[in-house]
């Protein structure tokens, strides 16, 4: 008999033996009483709960439209719902955008929305805030050839329209805005011509009908100064950041006067987010936190890194974005998240060219949106990202 025939014969015998064993076993089990029959059955051990799936925060780029007049940049973003957010900036020349720009997020993509312009040469939005899908404000600057003038636009649920500019700022720009309610809106920036060293920090208030100036003295005295960002918990709890004489400045309004908040940390302060009266974040070249008694530096940035925006959702969910230098001479997106105990870096896919992140907004449901601009061979284009985090 050949070797393969012996193998085949052995295989047939093994199959027959297995079948006989199975039949005999079935007959024995069937003959047992019901209770004993169950007791002889093999019980599978209970499955242990599956280990929780790791969920590390991350980000991904999402498409953002470019207007017909060329390049674009996004300067700020605010989300009021997972399917409703505004991003604003300018389009056209990257140095002096010719038109204001607003994009609307519907939960899946960004769409262009028509916006008004005040200048014949240059127009751009620098900041935006919103209370609902029917109430939003954007501020910035415009030019018709004789220096910049501030611009303010309001969204009423259907159209962006220009509001009267604050009389206290005939020349200059508004760089930050925060809305506590529809009749309690704050804007900050500067008055004067910075090219001549004449800019002076300003803070103005909208009561739903008109603007009024809120004097910054003695918090900010004479000399060159600018406020670049503002955050308002109420009309009696407003924070603003900027610089005076090339030094960082943080000021607070208590409903009556502005006061200087001493900052022990050197470096530019570019953004502020107030979560509670005793829970305020300020970022720039450093990361600072106010606990109701004073400011403390928490975490540290690497050389060359700058944060340009911060969004606080809860004491254990704070986001900040900016730029980090790359080895090839470009800058790349920098995304950080605070989990209540420490700041960590949020990773995303690499992006070609230089990318500057200028704004971030986040919601309790885990929605995180960031915006900025990208410089590449095709020029300057808008840039948008969507972050993911674990909730619940």
Helix percent reads under 10%
Number of strands: 29
Query: Order of strands side by side in the largest beta sheet?
Result: 26-1-29-28-27
Distance, first to last CA: 70 Å
User: How many distinct helices?
Assistant: 2
Roughly what fraction of the amino acids lie in strands?
over 45%
Going by helix content, strand content and strand pairing, the class is: mainly beta
Nearest-integer average pLDDT:
87
The coarse overall form would be globular
| Computed CA radius of gyration, to the nearest angstrom | 30 Å
Largest sheet features = 5 strands, mixed
Low-pLDDT segments: 1-53
Task: Provide a descriptive summary of the structure in words.
This protein has about 400 residues and is mainly beta. Helices cover about 10% and strands about 50% of the residues. It contains two helices and 29 strands. A hairpin with a 2-residue loop joins strand 14 and strand 15 (about 235-245). The chain is globular, with a radius of gyration of 30 Å.
